[in-house]
Write a structure and sequence with these properties.
Shape: globular
Radius of gyration: 18 Å
Strand content: under 5%
Structural class: mainly alpha
Number of strands: 0
Largest sheet: none
Helix content: over 70%
Distance between the termini: 16 Å
Number of domains: 1
Oligomer: single chain
Number of helices: 11
């Protein structure tokens, strides 16, 4: 029998890899299409894929609390995403990304510790290394005065993502595919409403549509892997490992687009690997 520590690490890494691939694919798509149209379509892809998987695997419809937490996950996750994009458009990406990443991890770690007790000392050390790694990998090296808005919206984004992770943990014991479907429904509604209010969404060209669909598939699979990780192991461990997804994004950009990685980002990658080793012991 595979130990839970190995399973949660495996599924957490799978979530990080697929979410990173989703961000990479979505990032490519936003170069040729509206950000909001890309986000809406990627969420809609999950809305098609996840119920199909639920029917294929004959998953029973969960009780109402599972549906409720699926709804909360969708609203919180999509709100966090909108806050992060707002932070990117108004502030400094090199500040917004790492701040949101740290808050994203902090909330589930505190929640997990309060419900399951503190993890082992070496795992806590791994958490610290992972947070430093996320900061280094996400930081683009932007300099200058940091204003209040440079911090406020990343904090909101981190809170939204943190609540998403906690909500997934709360419904993953009873079912996975159906609550994630509900999450996608609520996410699409929230993002569509915001895009309509901002009048920001435009239809993408047919040439970029396959890349957007690919991003949506990766995103949905990443959600599934995280739900499995939180199901088989501790929420704090699952969250910290899955939140290393920026490493997957920057590595794909380095391999496929030949983008330059700074020395700080390489240090972040090494720290991330070290953190994974400590957490999975």
């Amino acid at each position: 029998m595979i130990p839970p520590e190995i399973l949660v690490t495996f599924f957490g890494l799978a979530a990080a890899a697929t979410w990173g691939a989703a961000d990479f694919s979505g990032g490519l798509a936003t170069r040729r299409a509206s950000v909001y149209s890309v986000v809406i379509i990627t969420q809609a892809v999950g809305l098609v894929l996840l119920p199909f998987l639920a029917l294929y695997f004959s998953e029973e419809f969960p009780p109402m609390d599972g549906i409720f937490w699926g709804f909360v996950a969708g609203v919180a996750g999509s709100s966090g995403l909108l806050a992060l994009y707002h932070a990117f458009s108004r502030g400094k990406m090199g500040v917004a990304a790492p701040i949101s990443a740290v808050i994203t991890v902090a909330l589930p770690v505190v929640y997990g510790a309060s419900n399951e007790g503190l993890p082992a000392g070496y795992q806590i050390g791994g958490f610290v290394l992972a947070i430093v790694a996320m900061w280094l990998i996400s930081n683009t090296g932007e300099k200058g005065e940091i204003k209040r808005q440079d911090v406020f919206y990343p904090l909101l984004a981190g809170v939204g993502f943190g609540i998403f992770f906690i909500s997934v943990d709360l419904f993953s014991e009873s079912a996975v595919f159906w609550p994630l479907t509900v999450a996608k429904v609520s996410a699409v509604v929230v993002i569509l409403g915001f895009a309509f209010f901002r009048k920001s969404a435009t239809l993408p060209s047919k040439s970029v549509l396959p890349v957007i669909i690919l991003a949506g598939i990766f995103d949905a699979i990443g959600n599934l892997f995280f739900a499995l990780a939180s199901q088989v192991g501790r929420l704090d461990i699952a969250t910290v490992i899955a939140s290393l997804y920026p490493g997957s994004t920057v590595l794909l950009a380095w391999i496929i687009l030949k983008e330059h990685l700074s020395s700080m980002q390489w240090i972040g990658v090494v720290l991330a690997l070290s953190a994974i080793a400590l957490i999975s012991l």
